[in-house]
Amino acid sequence: MLKTIKFILISLLFTNIAMADKIEFMPTSTLTGPQGKIIRMVTEQTKSSSFEFVPSAKNGCGEAVNIFNTTKEPVAIIWSDTNIRTSNRTKQNCVIDFKTATPIMVAAETYEFCTLSSASLSTTEVNRFGVIKTRPTNELLRLMNSNKQGYKFKNVIYTSSGSVLQAILNREIDLGMLSTGAAKTAVKAGTIKCLYTTGSTQFGQKPVSTFFGEQSPLANIQLGMMMFVRNFTPAQIKKLKQNLDSTFVTKLEKSDLFGVKVGIDQKTQEAFIKTAKNKAKYN
Amino acid sequence: MIDIVQSVGWGLLSGVLTGLMPGIGIMLGFLLFLPLIPLDPLCILLYGLVLKVGSQFFGSMAVLYLKIPGETSSLPVLMELKNLKFEDTYRAVMLTNFGSLVASLFATLVLFWFLQADFAKGIYFPIALKSLVFLILILIALYSNKNVWTNFFILLFGTFINFYAEIAAEVKDYVPFLPIYYFNTQLILIIIFVSQLLWINESPLAVASLDHLKKESIGIKKYLGKISSYSIIGCMCGLIPQLGSTISSYLSYSLERIRGKSALDKITASETANNGAAVTGWLPLLLFGVPFYGSEIMMLQHFQTYNLDLEFLKSEGIPKTIMLVLILVGILYFIMASYINQKYYVLLGKVICKKWFSWLLMLVSMGSFYAANSYDLKYLIIHLAVFLPVGYYFYRIKTDLLSLIIGLILMDEIVYNTIRVIQIYN
Hints:
By secondary structure, chain A is of the alpha/beta class.
């Protein structure tokens, strides 16, 4: 009896939730940002089927990718097109093995360039441009200053879209770059207006490429995220794709994610990786 | 709706515990059930607001019934208790409750007015002023007691962990020492704060029966003017960073003392004012996103962790919801504090001092964090191994943990804010 209790206790100690016949689903960043949003929605969508995804955040993209590349169990990951840049910046390997991974779906977060509703940009003074630190801030500033309307900008760095929004409201910055989801409520409330966008047109914004004075891949900067799985049988992959049906796509789009597509062909995957490689060129 | 009810319920429980139990300050109270609150900004805000109002209501009860100050703003009452006639104890209980209710409702209306008013949307908080508030918070943390150097080193310790966590999360190969894992600030705070309860050794307190005093007239009419004026003073004091409730309590107590008033007057004034401050203290955060109090710093960090912001306050109906919840909660607290038999306090007084109760709280807060975050057990054990001894050390040196909060949570924002000030004004 004592032995059985000991065995149960030891088993409990060394067992975590992911080992109980469940599929670990990892972000390459955190579970709280847009990657977490996709993970939660996929988990929710597939709950009633035979899949049981368990969201599990790791210590950075290096650890998540290492687990994904080496595990023998079925596993899922969200890999974003900033991960090659992160690999270069942090010396971790944040690039999954694309040969053994199967892409399932893709989605993107777009960005808005917004000001206070009552404010406008100045042509006589240098405008303060608020941007999140994980974006290619130097290259973005260079592009912003290449505009032909005569506006000049300087960077003010923030940690999140929420803090950029707060900075616009506090008049700390004249123009801020923030995610569409973060801008949405304030635009609806009439406190800010978005002038340019990298994708969404729901507020009547113009593409930011029309503002930049030169062509640049960053004109369409979005956070692209692709879901990959490993060690899934073809039948499991087919079933998973069936589960992520049109209602799922609509749900994601309503959550301010764009370009949602389930079922990724070779061409789409290669284009996605190419974008990631391009992004790694800028700082 | 269910989410709101759930959050308010946890806020009520946490408010009662924070007010009644000397070891649980508002910051710890906030952390206790935070992992159980739905990840909705309104729910988290309501939880914080309800908890803070409750801590002031039940802080008065703890000091009057159990003679222990549940929170620092109740200390003037403790000082005055020796002058309070025993026959006046029941009146003191009822008057402080009534004063707390009036002040809470008044402050709620002030809060609602500011959140709704059009002119308030045009007010903003310059970044330089934000830096000044941060500086004041650091100074308050350093000089919160006589151990300035200890506070300074705790601030440095928190700052180190704060930046270590940020570096370790992104650049793990570069981290020069300590095992390579990811520190979670919320988990660290839960371990250090909640573990403070494990070391406390306080015995249950005897409570004298007040039943025979219930027939005494309370004389609320006579005190209406006083309660109204100290509600206003409390609301204004709420805008003092970190110390609003405590200062309002001491100020009101001192004003009555200068006027040579009775112990009952002093107690009523002091316990009325702190409730007003507890509510209006949220205004700078809700209007400008600038936290004035430790619990607000924690809430803001929780918001940042989960990519939440305060923009929801501009949505239609939200200020009204907040107002209605606060009014309802004020009335609920009033009923609980006034009409529930004192046996309840006796029982609670006995239970909250038991070791198993502290362990239970620790288990609930850590267990809910573990479950809510799908946390890795390995990391949980490492955090416990490192920070449980640290928590014990902090308990032994009897330090104020505000320095830790500022270092651990706010210091990165302070540093980035300073950089931004340079970027903007350069």
